[in-house]
Specification:
Elements (H helix, E strand, L loop, with lengths): L10 H11 L2 E3 L11 E3 L3 H18 L4 E4 L8 H5 L2 H4 L1 E6 L6 E3 L19 E4 L3 E3 L9 E3 L5 H5 L2 H8 L5 E10 L14 E11 L4 H18 L7 E5 L11 E9 L2 E12 L1 H10 L5 E3 L4 E3 L2 E8 H12 E6 L2 E6 L10 E5 L4 H14 L5 E3 L5 H11 L3 E5 L1 H6 L1 E6 L4 E6 L3 H9 L12 E4 L3
Helix pairs in contact: 2-9
The structure holds glycyl-adenosine-5'-phosphate.
The site of glycyl-adenosine-5'-phosphate (GAP) has 19 residues, from strand 10, strand 13, strand 16 and helix 9.
Protein backbone atom coordinates (compact mmCIF):
# COMPACT_ATOMS: atom_id res chain seq x y z
CA UNK A 1 0.00 0.00 0.00
CA UNK A 2 1.40 3.43 -0.90
CA UNK A 3 1.51 6.26 1.62
CA UNK A 4 -1.37 8.24 0.10
CA UNK A 5 -3.92 5.47 -0.35
CA UNK A 6 -7.08 6.00 1.65
CA UNK A 7 -7.04 4.44 5.08
CA UNK A 8 -3.42 4.80 6.03
CA UNK A 9 -2.38 7.43 8.54
CA UNK A 10 0.87 9.27 7.92
CA UNK A 11 2.49 11.96 10.02
CA UNK A 12 2.17 14.43 7.10
CA UNK A 13 -1.59 13.91 6.85
CA UNK A 14 -1.99 14.21 10.59
CA UNK A 15 0.08 17.38 10.96
CA UNK A 16 -1.79 19.06 8.13
CA UNK A 17 -5.25 18.04 9.39
CA UNK A 18 -4.39 19.05 12.94
CA UNK A 19 -3.36 22.50 11.79
CA UNK A 20 -6.29 22.95 9.39
CA UNK A 21 -8.93 21.97 11.91
CA UNK A 22 -7.46 23.62 15.01
CA UNK A 23 -6.01 20.70 16.94
CA UNK A 24 -2.33 21.67 17.09
CA UNK A 25 -0.24 24.57 15.73
CA UNK A 26 3.51 25.23 15.84
CA UNK A 27 4.30 27.44 18.82
CA UNK A 28 4.75 31.17 18.02
CA UNK A 29 3.69 30.37 14.46
CA UNK A 30 3.69 33.99 13.21
CA UNK A 31 7.40 34.20 14.12
CA UNK A 32 8.27 31.01 12.27
CA UNK A 33 7.68 28.68 15.22
CA UNK A 34 9.99 27.50 17.99
CA UNK A 35 11.74 24.20 17.59
CA UNK A 36 9.86 21.30 19.22
CA UNK A 37 7.24 23.45 20.96
CA UNK A 38 3.55 23.20 20.08
CA UNK A 39 0.30 25.02 20.81
CA UNK A 40 -3.02 23.22 21.19
CA UNK A 41 -5.83 24.92 19.27
CA UNK A 42 -9.55 25.25 20.07
CA UNK A 43 -10.26 21.57 19.30
CA UNK A 44 -6.92 20.15 20.45
CA UNK A 45 -7.24 21.70 23.88
CA UNK A 46 -10.55 19.86 24.39
CA UNK A 47 -9.04 16.55 23.29
CA UNK A 48 -6.07 17.02 25.59
CA UNK A 49 -8.31 17.99 28.54
CA UNK A 50 -10.41 14.89 27.94
CA UNK A 51 -7.32 12.65 27.93
CA UNK A 52 -6.17 14.13 31.24
CA UNK A 53 -9.66 13.94 32.70
CA UNK A 54 -9.96 10.26 31.75
CA UNK A 55 -6.56 9.49 33.30
CA UNK A 56 -7.42 11.39 36.49
CA UNK A 57 -10.76 9.61 36.81
CA UNK A 58 -9.11 6.20 36.39
CA UNK A 59 -6.08 7.01 38.54
CA UNK A 60 -7.55 9.07 41.39
CA UNK A 61 -11.32 9.51 41.41
CA UNK A 62 -12.27 5.87 41.03
CA UNK A 63 -9.65 4.49 43.42
CA UNK A 64 -9.44 4.20 47.19
CA UNK A 65 -5.68 3.96 47.27
CA UNK A 66 -4.72 7.10 45.35
CA UNK A 67 -4.59 10.84 45.95
CA UNK A 68 -3.54 13.68 43.65
CA UNK A 69 -1.07 16.55 43.87
CA UNK A 70 -0.22 19.60 41.80
CA UNK A 71 3.33 20.66 42.66
CA UNK A 72 5.36 23.56 41.35
CA UNK A 73 7.54 23.43 38.24
CA UNK A 74 10.39 25.30 39.92
CA UNK A 75 11.80 23.42 42.89
CA UNK A 76 14.72 23.82 45.27
CA UNK A 77 17.80 22.93 43.15
CA UNK A 78 18.90 20.46 45.84
CA UNK A 79 16.00 18.26 44.66
CA UNK A 80 17.79 17.69 41.36
CA UNK A 81 21.11 16.99 43.07
CA UNK A 82 19.43 14.38 45.26
CA UNK A 83 17.49 12.81 42.41
CA UNK A 84 20.66 12.39 40.35
CA UNK A 85 19.43 14.60 37.51
CA UNK A 86 22.24 17.16 37.85
CA UNK A 87 24.91 14.55 37.31
CA UNK A 88 23.16 11.84 35.33
CA UNK A 89 20.21 13.18 33.34
CA UNK A 90 22.13 13.52 30.10
CA UNK A 91 22.32 12.13 26.59
CA UNK A 92 25.49 11.55 24.55
CA UNK A 93 25.87 14.43 22.09
CA UNK A 94 27.94 14.27 18.90
CA UNK A 95 28.56 17.03 16.37
CA UNK A 96 29.31 16.74 12.67
CA UNK A 97 32.75 18.17 11.90
CA UNK A 98 31.54 19.29 8.44
CA UNK A 99 27.98 20.64 8.72
CA UNK A 100 28.02 21.12 12.54
CA UNK A 101 24.60 19.52 13.04
CA UNK A 102 24.22 17.86 16.43
CA UNK A 103 22.88 14.38 17.07
CA UNK A 104 22.16 12.00 19.90
CA UNK A 105 24.86 9.36 19.56
CA UNK A 106 22.62 6.52 20.76
CA UNK A 107 20.02 7.36 18.05
CA UNK A 108 22.50 6.85 15.23
CA UNK A 109 22.81 3.57 13.36
CA UNK A 110 26.19 4.47 11.82
CA UNK A 111 29.08 6.53 13.10
CA UNK A 112 28.68 9.29 10.53
CA UNK A 113 26.46 12.37 10.14
CA UNK A 114 22.97 11.39 8.91
CA UNK A 115 22.65 14.75 7.13
CA UNK A 116 25.91 14.94 5.12
CA UNK A 117 27.83 11.76 5.93
CA UNK A 118 30.56 13.80 7.64
CA UNK A 119 32.81 12.66 10.47
CA UNK A 120 31.45 13.02 14.01
CA UNK A 121 33.12 14.26 17.19
CA UNK A 122 33.47 11.95 20.18
CA UNK A 123 30.29 11.84 22.29
CA UNK A 124 29.98 14.31 25.17
CA UNK A 125 27.38 14.07 27.90
CA UNK A 126 24.79 16.84 27.50
CA UNK A 127 22.49 17.57 30.46
CA UNK A 128 18.85 17.85 29.36
CA UNK A 129 17.61 20.14 32.13
CA UNK A 130 16.70 23.73 31.27
CA UNK A 131 18.33 26.18 33.64
CA UNK A 132 17.02 29.59 34.62
CA UNK A 133 17.62 32.11 37.41
CA UNK A 134 15.45 32.94 40.37
CA UNK A 135 15.31 36.60 41.39
CA UNK A 136 16.84 39.58 39.60
CA UNK A 137 20.51 38.50 39.72
CA UNK A 138 21.77 36.04 37.14
CA UNK A 139 24.43 34.22 39.14
CA UNK A 140 25.21 30.60 39.87
CA UNK A 141 23.78 30.80 43.38
CA UNK A 142 20.37 31.64 41.91
CA UNK A 143 20.17 28.83 39.35
CA UNK A 144 16.93 26.85 39.28
CA UNK A 145 15.77 24.20 36.83
CA UNK A 146 12.54 23.69 34.93
CA UNK A 147 11.52 20.24 36.15
CA UNK A 148 12.35 17.44 33.69
CA UNK A 149 9.78 15.12 35.30
CA UNK A 150 6.80 15.68 37.63
CA UNK A 151 7.81 12.69 39.78
CA UNK A 152 10.14 14.57 42.13
CA UNK A 153 7.32 16.87 43.27
CA UNK A 154 5.61 13.72 44.53
CA UNK A 155 8.67 12.25 46.30
CA UNK A 156 9.45 15.44 48.20
CA UNK A 157 5.79 15.60 49.32
CA UNK A 158 5.68 11.95 50.43
CA UNK A 159 5.18 12.80 54.13
CA UNK A 160 2.72 15.62 53.38
CA UNK A 161 0.58 13.33 51.23
CA UNK A 162 0.79 10.43 53.68
CA UNK A 163 -0.01 12.48 56.79
CA UNK A 164 -2.87 14.47 55.30
CA UNK A 165 -4.54 11.62 53.41
CA UNK A 166 -3.94 9.02 56.14
CA UNK A 167 -3.50 6.30 53.53
CA UNK A 168 -1.86 2.97 54.33
CA UNK A 169 0.62 1.12 52.14
CA UNK A 170 0.17 0.35 49.34
CA UNK A 171 -0.98 3.76 48.18
CA UNK A 172 -0.16 6.10 45.36
CA UNK A 173 0.07 9.74 44.40
CA UNK A 174 -0.84 11.01 40.95
CA UNK A 175 0.13 14.20 39.23
CA UNK A 176 -0.38 15.79 35.82
CA UNK A 177 1.83 18.66 34.76
CA UNK A 178 4.36 20.22 32.48
CA UNK A 179 7.91 18.95 32.15
CA UNK A 180 10.80 20.39 30.13
CA UNK A 181 13.77 18.72 28.47
CA UNK A 182 16.35 20.31 26.24
CA UNK A 183 16.20 17.32 23.89
CA UNK A 184 19.06 17.00 21.40
CA UNK A 185 16.92 15.44 18.70
CA UNK A 186 13.25 16.27 18.50
CA UNK A 187 10.65 15.69 15.86
CA UNK A 188 7.81 13.48 14.79
CA UNK A 189 5.30 16.20 15.59
CA UNK A 190 4.36 16.18 19.30
CA UNK A 191 6.11 12.85 19.95
CA UNK A 192 9.29 14.43 21.31
CA UNK A 193 9.12 18.09 22.25
CA UNK A 194 11.05 20.29 24.64
CA UNK A 195 7.97 21.30 26.62
CA UNK A 196 5.42 18.56 27.25
CA UNK A 197 3.02 17.22 29.86
CA UNK A 198 3.28 14.07 31.92
CA UNK A 199 0.71 12.01 33.83
CA UNK A 200 2.68 10.25 36.56
CA UNK A 201 1.85 7.90 39.39
CA UNK A 202 4.24 7.06 42.20
CA UNK A 203 2.80 3.98 43.87
CA UNK A 204 4.37 3.24 47.27
CA UNK A 205 4.49 -0.41 48.34
CA UNK A 206 6.06 -2.58 51.03
CA UNK A 207 9.53 -3.78 49.97
CA UNK A 208 9.20 -7.35 48.74
CA UNK A 209 5.77 -6.78 47.20
CA UNK A 210 7.15 -4.60 44.39
CA UNK A 211 7.26 -7.32 41.70
CA UNK A 212 3.59 -8.08 42.21
CA UNK A 213 2.61 -4.39 42.00
CA UNK A 214 4.82 -3.84 38.99
CA UNK A 215 2.89 -6.53 37.05
CA UNK A 216 -0.38 -5.09 38.33
CA UNK A 217 0.40 -1.59 37.03
CA UNK A 218 1.59 -2.77 33.63
CA UNK A 219 -1.76 -4.48 33.13
CA UNK A 220 -3.75 -1.59 34.61
CA UNK A 221 -2.13 0.92 32.29
CA UNK A 222 -2.57 -1.24 29.19
CA UNK A 223 -6.25 -1.56 30.09
CA UNK A 224 -6.57 2.21 30.29
CA UNK A 225 -5.42 2.56 26.69
CA UNK A 226 -7.63 -0.33 25.55
CA UNK A 227 -10.59 1.29 27.35
CA UNK A 228 -10.07 4.43 25.27
CA UNK A 229 -10.43 2.35 22.14
CA UNK A 230 -6.76 1.99 21.14
CA UNK A 231 -6.45 -1.12 19.00
CA UNK A 232 -4.73 -4.01 20.79
CA UNK A 233 -2.51 -4.74 17.81
CA UNK A 234 -1.07 -1.22 18.05
CA UNK A 235 0.25 -1.61 21.60
CA UNK A 236 3.08 -3.80 22.85
CA UNK A 237 5.40 -4.13 25.83
CA UNK A 238 9.17 -3.89 25.67
CA UNK A 239 11.46 -4.59 28.61
CA UNK A 240 14.48 -2.30 29.02
CA UNK A 241 17.85 -3.97 28.78
CA UNK A 242 20.21 -3.44 31.76
CA UNK A 243 22.24 -0.95 29.69
CA UNK A 244 19.26 1.37 28.98
CA UNK A 245 17.72 1.54 32.46
CA UNK A 246 17.51 5.08 33.89
CA UNK A 247 19.83 5.75 36.84
CA UNK A 248 16.95 5.32 39.34
CA UNK A 249 15.37 2.27 37.79
CA UNK A 250 15.69 -1.42 38.71
CA UNK A 251 13.31 -2.67 36.04
CA UNK A 252 11.31 -0.91 33.33
CA UNK A 253 8.77 -1.85 30.70
CA UNK A 254 7.87 0.53 27.91
CA UNK A 255 4.34 0.49 26.63
CA UNK A 256 5.00 1.08 22.96
CA UNK A 257 2.59 2.29 20.29
CA UNK A 258 2.84 1.57 16.59
CA UNK A 259 3.19 5.21 15.45
CA UNK A 260 3.44 6.04 11.71
CA UNK A 261 7.25 6.27 12.14
CA UNK A 262 7.36 2.86 13.86
CA UNK A 263 7.06 1.36 17.35
CA UNK A 264 8.03 3.89 20.02
CA UNK A 265 7.58 4.55 23.75
CA UNK A 266 4.20 5.80 24.85
CA UNK A 267 4.63 5.22 28.57
CA UNK A 268 7.23 3.74 30.91
CA UNK A 269 6.41 1.61 33.94
CA UNK A 270 9.44 1.48 36.23
CA UNK A 271 10.36 -0.10 39.54
CA UNK A 272 12.29 2.76 41.18
CA UNK A 273 12.92 0.74 44.34
CA UNK A 274 13.67 2.98 47.35
CA UNK A 275 16.16 5.10 45.38
CA UNK A 276 14.31 8.43 45.44
CA UNK A 277 13.03 8.44 49.01
CA UNK A 278 16.46 7.39 50.33
CA UNK A 279 18.22 10.07 48.30
CA UNK A 280 15.85 12.78 49.56
CA UNK A 281 16.27 11.56 53.15
CA UNK A 282 20.01 11.88 52.78
CA UNK A 283 19.99 15.31 51.10
CA UNK A 284 17.18 16.90 53.16
CA UNK A 285 17.91 15.23 56.47
CA UNK A 286 14.16 14.52 56.84
CA UNK A 287 12.61 11.11 57.50
CA UNK A 288 10.61 9.83 54.56
CA UNK A 289 9.60 6.53 56.06
CA UNK A 290 6.41 4.67 56.80
CA UNK A 291 5.57 3.12 60.17
CA UNK A 292 4.49 -0.43 59.49
CA UNK A 293 1.77 -1.13 62.04
CA UNK A 294 2.32 -4.91 62.07
CA UNK A 295 6.07 -4.96 62.57
CA UNK A 296 6.20 -1.53 64.32
CA UNK A 297 9.18 -0.77 62.15
CA UNK A 298 9.88 2.22 59.94
CA UNK A 299 10.27 1.15 56.34
CA UNK A 300 11.28 3.06 53.24
CA UNK A 301 8.63 2.09 50.69
CA UNK A 302 9.48 0.85 47.22
CA UNK A 303 7.98 2.75 44.30
CA UNK A 304 6.29 1.56 41.14
CA UNK A 305 6.03 4.38 38.63
CA UNK A 306 3.70 4.35 35.61
CA UNK A 307 4.78 7.50 33.75
CA UNK A 308 2.79 8.53 30.68
CA UNK A 309 3.08 11.48 28.33
CA UNK A 310 -0.07 13.50 27.70
CA UNK A 311 1.14 14.63 24.28
CA UNK A 312 2.23 11.14 23.25
CA UNK A 313 -1.15 9.80 24.34
CA UNK A 314 -2.84 12.51 22.25
CA UNK A 315 -0.64 11.55 19.28
CA UNK A 316 -1.36 7.83 19.67
CA UNK A 317 -5.10 8.52 20.00
CA UNK A 318 -5.05 10.73 16.89
CA UNK A 319 -3.18 8.06 14.90
CA UNK A 320 -5.43 5.27 16.12
CA UNK A 321 -8.70 7.10 15.50
CA UNK A 322 -7.74 8.46 12.06
CA UNK A 323 -9.62 6.86 9.18
CA UNK A 324 -10.32 7.45 5.52
CA UNK A 325 -13.04 5.96 3.35
CA UNK A 326 -14.61 6.60 0.00
CA UNK A 327 -18.26 7.67 0.27
CA UNK A 328 -20.18 8.53 -2.91
CA UNK A 329 -16.85 8.73 -4.80
CA UNK A 330 -15.46 11.25 -2.34
CA UNK A 331 -12.87 10.86 0.37
CA UNK A 332 -14.29 10.99 3.88
CA UNK A 333 -11.67 11.62 6.60
CA UNK A 334 -12.71 11.07 10.19
CA UNK A 335 -11.52 10.46 13.71
CA UNK A 336 -13.28 7.57 15.46
CA UNK A 337 -12.61 9.06 18.90
CA UNK A 338 -14.05 7.34 21.94
CA UNK A 339 -17.03 9.47 23.00
CA UNK A 340 -15.27 10.41 26.27
CA UNK A 341 -12.39 11.88 24.27
CA UNK A 342 -14.16 13.56 21.36
CA UNK A 343 -13.41 17.30 21.59
CA UNK A 344 -16.91 18.25 20.42
CA UNK A 345 -19.67 15.84 21.43
CA UNK A 346 -22.57 17.36 19.49
CA UNK A 347 -22.88 19.74 16.54
CA UNK A 348 -26.16 21.57 15.96
CA UNK A 349 -26.70 22.18 12.25
CA UNK A 350 -29.73 24.08 10.93
CA UNK A 351 -30.39 23.08 7.33
CA UNK A 352 -30.55 26.73 6.27
CA UNK A 353 -30.05 30.18 7.75
CA UNK A 354 -33.76 31.04 7.43
CA UNK A 355 -34.82 32.95 10.49
CA UNK A 356 -37.41 30.54 11.84
CA UNK A 357 -35.02 27.57 11.49
CA UNK A 358 -32.18 29.47 13.16
CA UNK A 359 -34.43 30.35 16.11
CA UNK A 360 -35.31 26.70 16.77
CA UNK A 361 -31.70 25.54 16.17
CA UNK A 362 -30.37 28.17 18.58
CA UNK A 363 -32.89 27.04 21.20
CA UNK A 364 -31.68 23.47 20.77
CA UNK A 365 -28.06 24.63 21.00
CA UNK A 366 -28.79 26.56 24.21
CA UNK A 367 -30.54 23.49 25.68
CA UNK A 368 -27.65 21.13 24.90
CA UNK A 369 -24.54 23.14 25.69
CA UNK A 370 -24.82 22.97 29.49
CA UNK A 371 -24.55 19.17 29.13
CA UNK A 372 -22.12 18.59 26.25
CA UNK A 373 -19.35 20.45 24.45
CA UNK A 374 -21.57 21.57 21.58
CA UNK A 375 -20.85 23.47 18.39
CA UNK A 376 -23.28 25.49 16.26
CA UNK A 377 -22.58 25.67 12.53
CA UNK A 378 -24.84 27.18 9.88
CA UNK A 379 -22.26 27.74 7.11
CA UNK A 380 -21.97 25.76 3.83
CA UNK A 381 -24.03 22.84 2.52
CA UNK A 382 -25.06 20.23 5.08
CA UNK A 383 -22.85 17.51 3.49
CA UNK A 384 -19.77 19.69 3.90
CA UNK A 385 -20.66 20.44 7.49
CA UNK A 386 -20.96 16.71 8.20
CA UNK A 387 -17.49 16.17 6.70
CA UNK A 388 -16.08 18.98 8.81
CA UNK A 389 -17.50 17.42 11.98
CA UNK A 390 -16.13 14.02 10.85
CA UNK A 391 -12.68 15.60 10.72
CA UNK A 392 -13.16 16.89 14.26
CA UNK A 393 -14.33 13.45 15.38
CA UNK A 394 -17.74 14.72 16.55
CA UNK A 395 -19.84 11.64 17.40
CA UNK A 396 -23.27 13.25 16.82
CA UNK A 397 -24.69 15.94 14.57
CA UNK A 398 -28.18 17.26 15.24
CA UNK A 399 -29.88 18.62 12.13
CA UNK A 400 -32.83 20.97 12.28
CA UNK A 401 -34.85 21.08 9.04
CA UNK A 402 -38.12 22.66 7.90
CA UNK A 403 -40.10 19.64 8.99
CA UNK A 404 -38.70 20.21 12.50
CA UNK A 405 -40.76 23.40 12.63
CA UNK A 406 -43.91 21.34 12.04
CA UNK A 407 -43.31 18.18 14.05
CA UNK A 408 -40.72 19.40 16.63
CA UNK A 409 -38.44 16.49 15.67
CA UNK A 410 -34.71 16.65 14.81
CA UNK A 411 -32.26 14.31 13.09
CA UNK A 412 -29.34 12.79 14.95
CA UNK A 413 -26.60 11.67 12.57
CA UNK A 414 -23.97 9.28 13.88
CA UNK A 415 -20.32 9.76 12.87
CA UNK A 416 -19.10 6.18 12.50
CA UNK A 417 -22.06 4.59 10.69
CA UNK A 418 -23.53 7.78 9.19
CA UNK A 419 -26.90 6.39 10.30
CA UNK A 420 -29.56 8.95 11.04
CA UNK A 421 -32.49 8.80 13.41
CA UNK A 422 -35.31 11.20 13.99
CA UNK A 423 -36.26 12.02 17.57
CA UNK A 424 -38.34 14.66 19.26
CA UNK A 425 -36.53 17.86 20.14
CA UNK A 426 -37.69 17.43 23.73
CA UNK A 427 -35.95 14.02 23.90
CA UNK A 428 -32.67 15.20 22.34
CA UNK A 429 -30.71 15.76 25.53
CA UNK A 430 -31.62 12.41 27.10
CA UNK A 431 -31.12 10.52 23.83
CA UNK A 432 -27.69 12.06 23.24
CA UNK A 433 -26.69 11.51 26.85
CA UNK A 434 -27.60 7.82 26.57
CA UNK A 435 -25.79 7.43 23.26
CA UNK A 436 -22.65 9.17 24.50
CA UNK A 437 -22.68 6.79 27.46
CA UNK A 438 -22.51 3.91 24.98
CA UNK A 439 -26.10 2.90 24.27
CA UNK A 440 -26.76 1.38 20.88
CA UNK A 441 -27.85 3.92 18.29
CA UNK A 442 -30.23 1.35 16.82
CA UNK A 443 -32.30 1.28 19.98
CA UNK A 444 -34.70 4.04 19.10
CA UNK A 445 -36.68 6.16 21.47
CA UNK A 446 -40.45 5.86 20.98
CA UNK A 447 -41.54 7.19 17.61
CA UNK A 448 -37.95 7.28 16.25
CA UNK A 449 -37.04 6.46 12.63
CA UNK A 450 -33.68 5.28 11.25
CA UNK A 451 -32.04 5.70 7.83
CA UNK A 452 -28.61 6.17 6.27
CA UNK A 453 -26.96 9.49 5.28
CA UNK A 454 -27.72 10.19 1.61
CA UNK A 455 -30.91 8.03 1.52
N1 LIG B 1 9.47 10.01 35.83
C1 LIG B 1 9.89 9.09 34.85
C2 LIG B 1 10.07 9.68 33.54
O1 LIG B 1 10.01 10.88 33.35
P1 LIG B 1 10.50 9.05 31.03
O2 LIG B 1 10.45 7.71 30.36
O3 LIG B 1 11.70 9.89 30.84
O4 LIG B 1 10.25 8.75 32.58
C3 LIG B 1 7.93 9.37 30.81
O5 LIG B 1 9.21 9.88 30.60
C4 LIG B 1 7.02 9.69 29.66
O6 LIG B 1 7.01 11.10 29.39
C5 LIG B 1 7.44 9.05 28.32
O7 LIG B 1 6.97 7.73 28.21
C6 LIG B 1 6.77 9.97 27.32
O8 LIG B 1 5.41 9.62 27.16
C7 LIG B 1 6.84 11.32 28.00
N2 LIG B 1 8.00 12.08 27.48
C8 LIG B 1 9.28 12.02 27.89
N3 LIG B 1 10.05 12.87 27.18
C9 LIG B 1 9.21 13.50 26.30
C10 LIG B 1 9.40 14.49 25.29
N4 LIG B 1 10.58 15.05 25.07
N5 LIG B 1 8.31 14.88 24.57
C11 LIG B 1 7.10 14.34 24.80
N6 LIG B 1 6.87 13.41 25.74
C12 LIG B 1 7.90 12.98 26.49
Amino acid sequence: MTENKPGKVTMEKLVSLCQRRGFIFPSSDIYGGLSACWDYGPVGVELKRNVKESWWRASVQERDDMVGLDTSILMNPRVWEASGHVTQFSDPLVECKDCHQRWRADDLKENKCPACGGELTDPQQFNLMFKTFMGPVEEAANVVYLRPETAQGIFVNFQNALNTSRKRLPFGVAQIGKAFRNEITTGNFIFRSREFEQMEIEYFVKPGTDDKWFDYWVEERLNWYYGLGIKKENLRLREHGKDELAHYSQKCFDIEYNFPMGWAELEGVANRGDFDLKQHMEYSGKGLTYLDEESKEHVVPYVIEPSAGVDRSVLALLCDAYDEEIVNDELRVLFHFHTDLAPIKVAVLPLSRKENLSALAKDVYADLRPYFMTQYDDTQAIGRRYRRQDELGTPYCVTIDFQSLEDKMATIRERDTMNQIRVSVAALKDTLQAKLAGEDLFVLPEGGVIWKEGD
